[in-house]
C-alpha cells in the first residue's frame, strides 16, 4: 500500500472492484480521489463492496448518473444519508442487468426505493397498473373494468408500470444482502408479492382487452373469469414465469366474444409483462380457449386425467368476474379430492413421476434446480400427491401453496415434523437460488452454475447472502449448501412416503409422526401396491423387534419401497424381498451389503419387481448378490471359464450324488448371474444363449464323468462314450426353460466286446439321466433322448456302427432334419467328431431333397402346428409354435439346409442365425427375407426367455395383459413409461413379417 502525505493510498480493489476503469468511474461519481475515497463516501464504497457484483453495480451507477444528468446530485445526496436506499439500489444494480436497464430508461424510478419498503399487496398493484392504462377498479360492475389506453400505447404503459413495481419487490428482496440491518422479506413474502403483481397485470391486461374487443361504451354481454393455475394460483410465482390460466365464461351464446377478449388479454400481457399460458385447459392447446362452466364440468367428469386434477389443486379466480370464478372452483373442488379414487390413478401417478425424472438431460440433472434429481419439482410433486391421497378426508391439507401444504402435512402427522421443516427449508433455499438466477437478466432459467464456474458461483453466493466461512470462499460455501439441500430433497420419497409407513405398522407412539394404518394403506395404494394390507404385513414382519437386523431393515425399507413402487409388480417384489431376507437372515453380510452398496439395493429391487425366477434362485445362491455391485463380474464372465470351474469342482467328488449336487450348485449360480445380467440389460441375446448352453454342456460333461466313475468302481472302461447335443443344445441356443436334447453314442475299446460296451454305456447314460432329473428346487435339468433312432422305443445307447447302419438304411426325413443340429458336447471328443462326420451325408444329402421328402416335411410341420399348439393358445403370440415364431423360422432354415447344404458348405451349421446368414450369402434368401426371419427368431427367443424369467417357470405364451405383460415388456428393455401394448404390437409386427417369408419360402405359397 502506497503512502501519501495525508495517509495510506487505497485501491478500488479494497472494495471488491476489479475492473481497471473502476477508479476513473468512482472519480466521475465524486466518490474517489487520488489516494482513496472522498470524504463521506466510505459508507457508499463499503455498501458497494457488499453488492453481489461490485463492478456491475458501479457500471450501473455510472449509466444512471449519465441518464439523470443534473439530477444525479439529488440521488448522490440521498444515497449518502439513506441506508435503505443505498442497500436497495446497490443490491439491484449488482444483481440485475435487466432492472438496471429499466432504471436507465426511467431514471426517476429510483425514487421508488426511498423510504419504507414498497407496498406488496394485490390492491396496491392493481390500482397502479389499472391507472397506467387509464382504468379504475370501480368502473362498471365488478370484473368489467375497461381501459382508456389501447394497442401499443397500453402495452408500453403497462410494461413500464409493471417493471417499476417489479423493481420495488426486487429491491426489498435484495437489500439485506448489501445492508444487513434492513428487514428480510423471505421467500414466502417475495413469491406472494410476485404472484399478486401478476394478478394485477392480468386484471390490467383484461381491462385493455375488453376496451379493444368491445369498445369503451358498448355493453359487455359476456361474463368472463380468469382462473390462475400453477405457481400463480398457489401464490408462489418466480420473477420470470409463464402465468398459467384457464378461462370460464357465461353464457354459451357469447363464447365467441369471450374468446376474443381472452386472446387479446393474453397478447397484451405477453407483450407487456409475461407469457400467459392456457395449456392447462381441457384438451390442452387443442381444446377451446374458453368454455362455459357446464362445458368444463362435462369435460372433467368424463375425460380428465389424474394430472389435470393435480393441476386444479392450485386453481383460484383472479380476474374478471370473480363470482363466476368462485363457482368454477367450488364446482370442481369435489372432483379434485376424489381423484385418488379414480381408476388408473396409480398408473397416472407413476407416469407423472417418470415424466419428472425424464424431463431433464442426464448431464444437467445435478445442476437443474427445477427438474433435476433433488430439485423443486420433486418436492412439489410429492406434496401434491400426498395432498391427493390424504386430502380426501383431511381438509387441512387443501392448500394451494407448496410450503403451506407441507407444513399441514407435518401438523397432521402424514410427514414427520422435522422432515416437513427440513424440506420446507430446502425448498425455500432452492427457490431463493432460482429467484436470484432469474433476476440477473429477467430470463427464465433454473440452471445452477457449473462446479468450475468460479465467477458464477461467487456472484450467486453473494446475491443469495452466502458468505465465506474463513476456510472456504463464498462460492465453495454455496456449492456445499446446494449439494446439502439437493441431497436432502433426493431422499424426498423416503422422507415423505415411506418412513411413516414403518411407524404406522410398528405402532410406535410419536407426537411428530402418527400415520394411521388406514392412511398407510391409502398411501401404499396410491404408490402402486395393489394389496396394501399384505404390504403392511411384510413391512411389519421385516421391521418388528429390537434386533440390529430389524434396525437395518428399518433404514433400508423406505428406499426399497420407493424402488419397488416403480417396478411392474411392487407387491410381488416386496413379497420376494421378504422371502429373500428371511432365507438369508443368518447370512452376516446380506443386509450390510444392501445398506452400504446403493447399486445393489437398486438393482435387487428392479429384479424382484420383475422376475419370480430370480428370487427362487437367490435364496439358494445368495453369493450372486455380491456381483450386483460389480458390472464386470456380473456380465463379463467368460462362459468357458464358468464351465471350467464347474468341471473342476465336480471332479473332486467321488460320490456321483455329491458330484451332481456340486454341479447343480454351480449351475444355479451361473443361471442366476446370467438372469440378473439379462434383466438389467447388461447381456445381449447371443451372450445369454451361449452362457446357458455352455453351462448345460458343462453339467452334462461333469455328470457323465461322475457316472462313469461310479459304474466302473475302479475298473477300466470297456467303451468310449460321447454325448451328442441336439435341438437348441446342439445349436448353442438354449433358453432359460429349455431341456437338453441329446443322444448317447459308444464304441468298444480295444479288447472289449460290443455287448459289454453297450451295457456299460447304457448304465452310464441311465445314471446321468437319473442324477440330473432328480427332484430339486432348482430349474429342472431334464435330459431328453427322444430324438434317438426309433425314439422312445429304441435303445438308449448305440455304437457308432449301429448309428451308421440305422441312418444308412432306415432314417426318415424328420431324423435327417433333427441331425442338422447334432454336435459333440461331452465325453470322448474323438468319438463325437467321428459320429458328427458319419451323419453328414444324412443331413446334407447329395443332390438335395427329393420332392416327396419336401412334401413330408411340410406335412409334419402342418401336423405340429395343428396338434401341438395348446388349447386356447393365441397363435399370434405363442413364441414357439405361433405364426412367425421359433418353429416357423427354424424349420424354414432347416429346409434350406436339407436342400442346399451339400452345395453350400456355409449352410453346414447348427445355429439358426448363422444358417440364415449363410443362406443370404449363398443367394438362397434375399437380404430383406433373411433379416425378417432373423428378427422374428430373435424377438421370439427373447420374449420366451422373458416370460420364463417373469413367471419363474418355462412358458411359451405371452401374457395377455396386466402386470405380467408389463413385467415382460420391462424385462425386454421397454421403458417404464411405455405402454406394454407397444411390445405386443412390436412382437406381432415382427413375427407377422417373419411368417410372410415362411409362407413363401417354406410352404411355397
From TrEMBL:
UniProt family annotation: Belongs to the GlnE family.
Record has Transcription as a keyword: no
Top enzyme category: transferase
Listed name of the protein: Bifunctional glutamine synthetase adenylyltransferase/adenylyl-removing enzyme
Spans annotated as Adenylyl transferase: 509-1005
Catalytic activity reported: [glutamine synthetase]-O(4)-(5'-adenylyl)-L-tyrosine + phosphate = [glutamine synthetase]-L-tyrosine + ADP; [glutamine synthetase]-L-tyrosine + ATP = [glutamine synthetase]-O(4)-(5'-adenylyl)-L-tyrosine + diphosphate
Keywords recorded for this protein, A-Z: ATP-binding, Magnesium, Multifunctional enzyme, Nucleotide-binding, Nucleotidyltransferase, Transferase
Parts forming coiled coils: none
EC id: 2.7.7.89, 2.7.7.42
